[in-house]
Amino acid sequence: MSIGSSDFEESFLQTFLRFRTRIARAIGHIVRRDDVEDIVQETFLRCYQASARTAVRHPRSFMLTTARNLALNHIDLADNRLVTGVDAFDEGAVPLFRDTPTESTPEVQERFLLMCRAVQALPVQCRRAFVLKKVYGMSRKEIADYMGLSESTVQKHIAKGMVMCAEYLEAEQAAGQVSALAPPRGAPLRQKAR
Questions:
Q1: Which range marks the domain in which residue 161 is found?
Q2: Consecutive H or E run containing 109
Q3: Domain check: are 71 and 133 in the same one?
């Protein structure tokens, strides 16, 4: 580069500070509020290192793209940690029902696996809200605070998750892949809201 090292650093810093708010706002729609500052800092470091090696023609676009990619990677890593945590769960370590004998029949296992597949098919935000409510028993307010969403949005995610899981189970049953889930003749698959 033709400019001196200190000139480059000053120029880069000024450019970053000018776009910092836009970067934070852009990734604030992707990750939780608690993670925004970490990703903004990581964006600075990555962009600085890349700019020191090669000329960047459009610094704003470069910084915004880097921040967006870091935010999406952060979401993917968090999602993988959630799935890994569920996969590593030792189902024998914690009894799910204390007053009833443990059911380990093939039908029960098949229903459980089918429900896991239904939950895994949910969109990421919807799945998180659904699991936090149905598995961990958190309140809508707790989930809203944890995910950085409004309670109304959390409620919609949970409702959407319930509907999508029910539809998934119905589709699997209709396809004949799960005969053990068949309800008694004449029984509705689910009650419709009135």
A1: 106-181
A2: helix 106-120
A3: no
